[in-house]
Each structure stands twice: as C-alpha cells, then as structure tokens.
C-alpha cells in the first residue's frame, strides 16, 4: 500500500480518483489548492504526489518546483496531471522536476502502470533510501553549521540531476550522484582549505553504507587533465557521474566569484578546452542553463 497525495481543485475528479486508488489498495490524501502542498508533503511524506497543473494559489508547476528544491521532498515522485497536452507544458513540467506527466481524461491503466513503476523503484531502492536518510542528517548538520554551504549543496544536486537525466544515466546512478553532491563539501565542516576532501572522507569512514559516495567527496576537486587535488588523477579514473559533479561544483564556485553567468561560462569553456572538464558534460550544462533562461524570459521561475 502506498500513500498517495492527490492535489486537484476539481472535487468530483478527486472523488473518482480517490475511489480508484483505494480500490487498488492505496491510502489517499486530498488537497484542493497548491498552497500548503509542500508543507503537507514535508509533514506526512507521501510516496507519490499526483499534482494537477491548474490550481488556485500556487499552480502545479510552482508546487512541483518547490517540492524538488527541498532535499527532504525532492525524492518524492511527482506525476503532473492536466487537461493540457501541449509539448510546451510537458517540457515545463519536466523542467521543474516532474517525474511523469499524464493528461485528462485519465487512462487509469496507464496511471496504474506508472504508479506501480514508481513503487517498484521504491522497493528496489530501500538501500538508497536508508542511505539517503543518513545523508539528509549530515545535510541538516551542514545547514546548521553554514547555510551558504547547505545552499551550494542543494544547487549542486539540482544541476547534477538535470545533467544526468540529459545524459541518460540510470536512476540508480543518479541517486548515488545526488547523495555525493549533497555531501561533497562535508569536509568543510572542519577544514576550509585544500584538505577538506580528506577530512570529508574521515568524517564518514565508519559508515559503510556511504562507501559509494566517497569518490565524490574525495575527488570533487580533481581535474581530467591531472591539475586538480588531492591525487592529481587523470581522465581514465573519472566516471560519468564524477565528471558531472566536478563540472557543476566548478560552475557554481566560479559563478559565486564572477557574479556573471556569461563570464563564468567563458572561463569554464576555456577550462574544458584545456582538458580539465568533459566537453559532453559541459554541453549538457549549457542546455540546462538555456532551458532555464527560456522559462525566465517567459516570466516563469
């Protein structure tokens, strides 16, 4: 049995879907406005959110974006539900982090299959969820210690996932990457200098469940041309996931210094030419940023 949060301002539609979900053996929560969905999800932790686009208060796109911006609600699958079938709406749904998209009138066979798929993924990823809980605890510690460091971790995870999806990484690899992105700077809790990667691994070394994310913590300042630290490793040692993390981390650090996106991308592009970062990953980042700019120009955040 799953806990499904159904958000739709159409009471009749809600009742019909609630009856169907209960017949499938699920527990159903209902909300009729976008305002308060994030707070509800944070408190009750539904397994799936079925979210209508056209909502009073906050629309579905805004709600989804808010859910996906918080590390605690980010893992919850969001299925966008709408009468609209335009390509632009689908693009926008995925751009704000939606996991799936289904149109009204609902094809319940399709929806049942979609829900079952997300639930199977949940069962297959119990180990990841256990690890994620530990990661989230450390992330809260980072937030308490330094909110700027916490915000950097969230932004890093956000862009890492966007790029990983464009590069067609498996969900399992993305989950490991996200945990690594959340904690890549955990060593800065005790050391702000060049030794923070080693300190990060020392902090977590007694937790064997975090073994898979050690490379992200230890090697996020390495460069593919061997100019990084602490080991000066070269191209053949880099996984696709590590290539993504080191690029995103560098982009955000440069952006913080330069305060100008174009200047930042020019510098980063030059470093790509010098072999420090992967060109395909850089191009995927450019695509993500181009998509963001497209929606910003339309007045959509």
Automatic annotation (TrEMBL):
Q: Give the 4-aspartylphosphate positions (modified residues).
A: 52
Ranges for domain Response regulatory: 3-119
- What GO terms in the biological process aspect are recorded for it? phosphorelay signal transduction system
Pfam name, any one: HD
* Coiled coil region boundaries: none
Query: Which CDD domains did the record assign?
Result: HDc
Q: Which domain of life is it from?
A: Bacteria
Q: Which UniProt keywords apply?
A: Phosphoprotein
* Stated role: May play the central regulatory role in sporulation. It may be an element of the effector pathway responsible for the activation of sporulation genes in response to nutritional stress. Spo0A may act in concert with spo0H (a sigma factor) to control the expression of some genes that are critical to the sporulation process.
Q: Could you identify this protein by its name? A: Stage 0 sporulation protein A homolog
Q: Which organism is it from?
A: Thermosyntropha lipolytica DSM 11003
The top of its lineage is: Bacteria, Bacillati, Bacillota, Clostridia, Eubacteriales
């Amino acid at each position: 049995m799953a806990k499904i949060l159904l958000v739709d301002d159409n009471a009749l539609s809600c009742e019909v879907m609630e009856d169907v979900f209960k017949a499938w053996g699920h527990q159903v929560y209902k909300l009729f406005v976008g305002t308060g969905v994030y707070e509800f999800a944070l408190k009750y932790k539904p397994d799936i959110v079925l979210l209508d686009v056209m909502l009073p208060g906050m629309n579905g796109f805004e709600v989804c974006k808010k859910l996906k911006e918080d590390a605690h609600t980010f893992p919850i699958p969001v299925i966008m539900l709408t009468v609209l079938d335009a390509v632009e709406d689908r693009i926008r749904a995925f751009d704000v982090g939606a996991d799936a998209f289904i149109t009204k009138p609902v094809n319940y066979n399709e929806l049942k299959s979609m829900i079952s798929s997300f639930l199977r993924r949940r069962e297959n990823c119990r180990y990841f969820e256990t690890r994620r809980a530990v990661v989230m605890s450390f992330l809260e510690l980072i937030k308490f210690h330094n909110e700027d460091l916490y915000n950097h971790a969230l932004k890093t995870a956000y862009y890492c996932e966007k790029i990983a999806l464009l590069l067609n990484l498996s969900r399992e690899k993305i989950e490991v990457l996200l945990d690594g992105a959340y904690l890549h700077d955990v060593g800065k809790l005790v050391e702000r200098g060049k030794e923070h990667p080693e300190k990060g691994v020392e902090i977590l070394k007694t937790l064997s469940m975090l073994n898979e994310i050690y490379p992200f913590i230890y090697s996020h300042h390495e460069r593919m041309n061997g100019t990084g630290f602490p080991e000066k490793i070269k191209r053949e040692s880099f996984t696709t996931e590590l290539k993504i993390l080191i690029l995103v981390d560098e982009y955000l650090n440069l952006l913080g210094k330069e305060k100008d996106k174009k200047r930042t991308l020019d510098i980063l592009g030059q470093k790509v030419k010098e072999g420090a970062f992967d060109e395909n990953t850089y191009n995927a980042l450019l695509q993500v940023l181009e998509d963001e700019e497209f929606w910003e120009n339309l007045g959509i955040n």
